[in-house]
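Q: Could you fold this chain for me?
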Amino acid sequence: MWSIIIIDDDRQVLQSMRKAIPWEQIDAICVGEAMDGEEGLRLVELKNPDIIITDVYMPVMNGLDMIGELRSRGYNGKIIILSGYTEFEYAIKALRLGVDDYLSKPVTVKTLEAVLSGAIHQLEDRLAKDFEHEDLRKKLELYEPFVEKEWLKSLITGTKTMNEIEPYVLRQPQLIANCYMVMGIEMLRTERVSSISDWNLFRFAVMNIIEELLQKQWKESSYIQLHSNHGAILLYLPKGIGEDERLKKVRVIGKQMIECVYQYLHIQLHIGIGQIKRNWREIRLSTEEAFVALAVKNHSLSSDLEIYDYASKEEQGQPSDKSMLRTATFYRELAEALRQTQLLRTQEIIRGFVAGIEDKDNTKPSYLQQIGAEVFTICKYALFESGIVMEDKADLSEWRRECSSIVNKDQLEHLLLGKMEWICSWGSVKDNVKHKQAVEFMLEYIHENYALDITISDLSEKVYISRNYLSHIFRKATGETFNNYVTRVRMEKARTLILEGKHLIYEIAEMVGYKNVPYFSTLFKKVIGVNPSELIKS
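A: Sure. Below is the predicted structure, expressed as structure tokens.
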């Protein structure tokens, strides 16, 4: 219901206005009356009405002065002047003060109703826009952490140009004031992981354990989920830190990560360490070094743990570290361009890489064939993450056979360019990327809000995809329904809380979103295999 205040120094006008306005028809109510501008100011301040109907000539303070004061105080409601004076100069001044209408006395009921209805219609439009803006603001706040992680992911992997990433960096003081180092994380699949859905759960569980350790041991850090079974940690280091101190700190935190993840999840981690960088533009190089260290596994920091440091020296019988870094960058850039179905970009990347193959050892057929085979694997993973299974598209044995027959750089380039054109012609990769991003957002939202009442309808509004289609996308990506996945996340969290032994069963039930304890126990046994009390005893 809309609120209206009437201000006029004539009591008869006030009475007639109350009778003339069709309050029910316009869904409005009179919340007060005043007989001069000063009294009107106090009443507006007290009631904050949607609409003010006021006279111009009044004692103490006239209507125009009152309106000017109201506007200076920020009042943005509708103001309608109803006056017996129609001088042009008053009308001009009223317009400058943002008055919505200027009516002359006497006014007909029909005109009054039409003007008030128009003002209310404008208020309804404004309110709808305010709701839309508020809804958009809330959605932006919801997406902000996700967008923040995507920018950070782009920074460490180099999927955006320096010009694109710089505005983000300038908003992050810690990225300007520190030195940096990247830890590459490789999660080894185990027999416990029987499906894509299982793997998603384990990835988030690993992330939670690592983030909890970092919060205690290395607060100035960020964990980033990468593709498949890989993650990365950006570590901020004080300027002037020495090499020995760096390795000591990394060895300690790496050892804790490996041991805790294995203790709670029985998943093995391998860790690669990149070198210190003193400029944010070089962070991506530290990432490449970390994953090269993981691939080569030549410089272990511990005899009993899989923690490997990057060393910038050539190993006999191996390609130079520079060459390996260049190859790792090539794979990353090619995978990203492929996910976006950017044919020209894939061709540019391939030509640039092949043109840079100059080392004698790197022109041997065996090395070129290896590159061809590895690009084949990179394509499979990149497309699989986008929801495309290459085997469903075509027989891939020909690609493998063609790789084995490569004898020079030209043949490698010709093969790879042809395969990129073939893959990009499918034309559905971009849509799959969008679907993957929506599912990733949903997974992250579930793992962060599992204790709340989460529905697929709520999330469909957040990602702007219809409920039924989103449900189909989610099931295709994870291998199970949305509700089943939420239940599994809750039960896995409940199991962790039970094993910690700090809470009673009814408390844990509430902590993971269930007020009905018997129902919680039934679901727990269905998902975990034993009921909560049996788990406590065991």
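A (continued): DSSP finds 24 helices and ten strands in the chain.
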